[in-house]
Design goal:
Elements lengths: L6 H6 L20 H7 L4 H6 L1 H15 L4 E2 L6 H5 L4 E4 L3 E4 L6 H5 L7 H18 L5 E6 L1 H10 L7 H9 L1 H25 L3 E6 L7 H7 L1 H11 L6 E5 L6 H7 L3 E3 L6 H8 L4 E6 L8 H15 L5 E5 L9 H13 L5
Parallel strand pairs: 1-4, 4-5, 5-6, 6-7, 7-8, 8-9
Antiparallel strand pairs: 2-3
Helix pairs in contact: 4-7, 7-10, 8-10, 9-10, 10-12, 12-13, 15-16
Length: 346
């Protein structure tokens, strides 16, 4: 790798770093007063679709926390609009899909358009963020993975049991394969657009995939994730692969692709390292709820994760999922400082 890479990028490539880098999933969001002030004026979609506002939200935690990477402020559902899916965010309920995908005909009607036609505002925001960061920290882009996006599209919103996607896999495998192929293509091209606009790493979020058995993941999901990672490999930026509830899927996720595998709090970091081996970087894995715990308990949990993980090249501290809205900002900042100060493995 070239000289001058940031700690975060070096850790993604399993190179030595002077301290453990840290960033947080959902590090820009409702736990920050600055963000809540903007949300009083603008809808979530307006924040995402107005580059100047997306820049401001992306930079808020960089100013407040001292994290080692910025992550683009956007939403995983944005590419669905380009496919002909309408959605909005119901207050207190999350996203609502206006035209769910339930049949082969619905899948056939989905468009696969160049991302520049509908998502140029995301690429504009990335270019503006890179300019505003002035090299201080790298910028991570991201997208939702095909299974998680398909689940939203089929279920019509958030789900507990994932009945729709699980049944489509088996009752209409042709529709499922076509849907996942279209989503893999859209996500791959969207991430390529982010990288070419200036994203210095990208993360694929498969937040719902933990509902599947290993056999179902391998048959119905992994081939489409591999399409994405194989299509990004030539871009030579770190590729992060994250899923929640994936203790039984980690080997299959590694095989599907990614330079970095995100680990949630259900798997101890040393166990994940033993399972996945030394040829992939790991990211994780504090339970987000612990950011609301008494400070001594929080510090104990952070040190335990560092003790298990920090002595291996290729480790990035993060949460096992996103920061929760009730989280005290002071606790988040304390974790950043504690991770940066940690030298127990040196």
């Amino acid at each position: 790798m070239e000289e001058g890479l940031s700690r975060f990028i070096r850790a993604c490539y399993r190179q030595e770093v002077d301290y453990v880098p840290i960033w947080f999933m959902r590090q820009a969001g409702r736990y920050m007063a600055e963000y809540r002030a903007l949300r009083e004026k603008y809808s979530l979609l307006t924040l995402c679709k107005t580059p100047e506002l997306a820049v401001e939200v992306t930079l808020q935690p960089i100013r407040a926390l001292g994290v080692d990477a910025a992550i683009l402020f956007a939403d995983i559902l944005l590419p669905l609009e380009s496919m002909g899916i309408g959605f909005d965010f119901a207050h207190g309920e999350g996203p609502v899909i206006h035209n769910p995908v339930r049949s082969l005909a619905d899948v056939q009607a989905l468009r696969v358009a160049p991302p520049e036609e509908h998502l140029g505002y995301v690429f504009d925001a990335i270019r503006m963020i890179r300019a505003a960061l002035s090299g201080k920290v790298p910028l991570i882009g991201f997208a939702g993975a095909p299974f998680t996006l398909a689940s939203y599209m089929i279920e019509g919103g958030h789900s507990r049991n994932y009945i729709g996607p699980k049944l489509m896999m088996r009752a209409d495998p042709g529709a499922w394969s076509l849907l996942m192929t279209k989503l893999a293509t859209v996500v791959r091209e969207y991430l390529l657009g982010q990288i070419r606009a200036g994203a210095q790493a990208v993360q694929l979020f498969d937040s719902w995939v933990g509902c599947l058995s290993p056999a179902d993941y391998q048959q119905y999901v992994a081939p489409y994730v591999k399409i994405i990672f194989d299509g990004l490999r030539a871009e030579r930026v770190p590729l992060i692969h994250f899923g929640a509830g994936t203790a039984t899927l980690l080997d299959h996720m590694k095989a599907a692709g990614g330079d970095v595998i995100g680990i949630d709090w259900r798997v101890p970091m040393d166990n994940a390292r033993s399972q996945l081996g030394p040829d992939v970087a790991l990211q994780g894995n504090l339970d987000p709820v612990l950011l609301m715990a008494p400070r001594l308990e929080l510090e104990r949990a952070v040190r335990d994760i560092l003790r298990r993980a920090a002595h291996h090249p290729g480790y990035i501290f993060n949460l096992g999922h996103g920061i929760l809205p009730q989280t005290p900002v002071d606790n988040v900042k304390a974790v950043v400082d504690l991770v940066h100060a940690y030298n127990g493995a040196k």
